[in-house]
Amino acid sequence: MSRLILQIYSKALYSTWIYYAPERILFDAGEGVSLTMSNKIYAIKYIFLTHGHIDHISGLWTIVNTRNNSMGDREKPLIVYYPRGNTAVEEWLDFIKKANDDLRFDLIAQPISTQEKIFLRQAGGFSRYIVPFKVKHTVQDFSLGYNVIETRRRLKQEYKDFSQEEISRLSKKLGSDQITEVYEKKILTVSGDTFGIDPNDAKDSEILLHECTFLKTSDRKMNAHASLEEVIEIASQANVQKLILYHISSRYSGKIDRYLRNIKETISFQINYVDPEVVFTL
Ligand SMILES: [Zn+2]
Ligand SMILES: [Zn+2]
């Protein structure tokens, strides 16, 4: 069995949560997350909230309460990152802290802004971090999307046409650091709830998780969410390797394949979707 990368539940209006196993991050914490993840919730190291709507934060209280009453290690702190200035999230976290005044671990509420770097892991030349970006959801609720970024090395542009032999000769002569350069690779992009994101925010991402509340654009009444044709265009422009659609309205449950059938032949990336009635794993 291959290693779990993502576990997702997402049904627009009801609940959304995304567990990214390689970094033990939970993006959003909708209802039912503890019930479904069960004892895996103890593995969560960080929670990143995209915004303060109830379908994305209602499961937070159960996570905190379950961790507090578990038999396992209760000492590990839990850091909840959220969009700076989002008062709905702040009031909810305040309430949870008051309701659980005997908390046995540190529950840390950490506001963040766009372009801030939140380091996840750093060892030698390896580094992974999160950078939030601004999205277009509702006026009242300041919302963020998130990129998980890894630094990698690649051959400098000027050596691109050199043969393998010439490159290894140069590498011996100058050292590999001299002929390579560090670049940032997006390994995961999470849109959060939004009208379509700016394709630059997901440029060359390995996996783009984009909300897709509406499969039919004409079903949408307000411009707070994305539709399938927009998301396909964004993923193409962004040149992503894989697109995963989530936050799909339950009205399309059981019919999603039909909407995707014709699209699959026209695109150059892989496409998956989170059925609103099924827990998705990758
Ligand atoms: Zn939502
Ligand atoms: Zn929302």
Write up what this structure looks like.
The protein is of the alpha/beta class. Helix content is 22%, strand content 30%. It has eight helices and 14 strands. The protein has helices at residues 33-37, 54-57, 60-69, 87-99, 164-174, 176-179, 228-238, 256-260, and strands at residues 6-11, 15-20, 25-29, 46-48, 78-83, 107-112, 118-123, 126-134, 144-155, 180-190, 207-211, 242-246, 270-273, 280-281. Strands 6-5-4-3-2-1-14 form a seven-stranded mixed β-sheet. A seven-stranded mixed β-sheet has the order 7-8-9-10-11-12-13. Strand 2 (15-20) and strand 3 form a beta hairpin. The relative contact order is 0.13. One zinc ion is lined by residues 12, 16, 53, 55-56, 193, 247.
Strand-helix topology:
Elements (H helix, E strand, L loop, with lengths): L5 E6 L3 E6 L4 E5 L3 H5 L8 E3 L5 H4 L2 H10 L8 E6 L3 H13 L7 E6 L5 E6 L2 E9 L9 E12 L8 H11 L1 H4 E11 L16 E5 L16 H11 L3 E5 L9 H5 L9 E4 L6 E2 L1
Parallel strand pairs: 3-4, 4-5, 5-6, 10-11, 11-12, 12-13
Antiparallel strand pairs: 1-2, 1-14, 2-3, 7-8, 8-9, 9-10
Bound molecules: zinc ion (2 copies).
The site of one zinc ion has 4 residues, from loops.
